[in-house]
Design a protein that fits this description.
Strand content: 25-35%
Shape: globular
Number of strands: 25
Helix content: 25-40%
Bound molecules: adenosine monophosphate
Number of helices: 14
CATH superfamily of the largest domain: ANL, N-terminal domain
Strand order of the largest sheet: 11-12-13-14-15
Largest sheet: 5 strands, mixed
Structural class: alpha/beta
CATH architecture of the largest domain: 3-Layer(aba) Sandwich
Distance between the termini: 52 Å
Length: about 500
Amino acid sequence: MNLATSLLAAAERTPNDEALVDGQHRLTYAKLHERVARIAGGLSELGIDRGDRVATVLRNRNETVELFWACQWLGACFVPLSWRDAPADTRYCVEDSGASVICFEKANARHADQLQHVRSIAVDDADEGSTWRRLLESSPSDGALDLDPGAPSVMLYTSGTTGRPKGVPRSHAAERAAGLSQVLQHGYQAGDRTLGVMPLYHTMGVHSMVAMSLIGGCYICQHKWDVDEALRLIETERVSSLYLAPTLFHDLVTSDDRTDFDLSSVNALGYAGAAMTSTMVERCTDVFAPRIFVNHYGSTEIYTFSIRAGQDDKPGCAGRPAINARLRLVELRDDSTPEDTVEALQEGEIICDLSSDEAFCGYWNRPDADEKAIRGDWYFTGDLGRLDEDGELWIVGRVDDMIISGGENIHPLEVEDALARHPAVLEAAVVGAPDDRWGQRVVAHCVLSTPVDAHELDAFLLEDATLARFKRPREYQFAEDLPKSASGKILRRRLREREE
Ligand code: AMP
């Protein structure tokens, strides 16, 4: 089944159930289908055909969801780009993707400037005579029900840590498989309601939306992160599942206003995109008492690598390979092959079999990136992991983030986890700084709730004794906040640059 048929099936199965909420704008599945078919008809009149790319620079608003589905209905490829990027980056991605249309909201009009031969459409201009109005009033298109499920559905751009963004085309089949695996592995139930705040230009956002469509669930748009608004939406919209980056959970459970809201509708929690500290796992469990709490480890290229559906007995554990995945740990070398597996309990680079139903088939026009990441039908994640005695996976960190100090390997995550146990530490990020004596020294950047000094934090780590003594930070920096990506990843690269 492709996603056009999948949308039709949802509209036939539960026509009167709520599919999409954005403030006052509420659509049932029948209405969503109708509106989407018209927008698709309008795009078709503008000359957009099967396989053509439609770029967007939009927040999580109803029009973004509608355009996603309109592209699926038409057989066009949805290319959502980040409104947080510089317009020059948007320009690069639009040109790289070959999109012939860019949809934006007026506040982000600068992203649509200076694009040659690309039609721009403001989705918050529905006045008489506007293009968006024309799309909404077009005759519905028939729907690409016969489209091969291997055809491209979306193309997401990953920023990576260095270099130009890479386009990751993903097929209808991969998108649907990813949505289904999320339904199953996050324990979703018919009619669930999720908070749609993870950006719809990121893999977590897109799959939250697709997963909801498969169970007749509702996607509640939150245009951009605001903790008080999120708490209000959870209460008023009776949100049942939260699938967020750890940073957003952090904001929710540490908010002073949290107890003013009724959060009892939430029963399923999932996090992805970055590791969650054990302290934060415990706080989320206390606040939400969830029926299911999932650590979802995955990436844009292959949606799910591994899953752990209980976090109480092993907070932070990434569990076992997901339903569509085969994983291996291999030696950390530029030329290692999928056969170079490590000994039991040893650390290695995590690789995933590309035969996963959720996998991409290679980057868009980037043979250099394919060559680096794809070896012998396995995808090399660039993440380090190890298996514990039970055969469960722990993410040790990004290969590139590893600190080598005095010849010893130190992984930021374990130092950050130990620091987060101190009651005054709200967040910590650890990087290596060049050091004449040690090669690299461990530097901790901390956000505090109450003042403490470096001496006290060091004494705490010595007393806590969960961290080997040589891994303790040699330097502390205190900050108001930490630089983060849209999916909540701490941008250690930026912190490292400050140290150089
Ligand atoms: P992205 O493609 O932006 O989703 O980034 C994928 C990367 O995010 C992975 O390769 C990991 O480095 C990191 N990541 C994703 N999920 C998790 C998780 N549950 N725990 C730790 N790191 C994660």
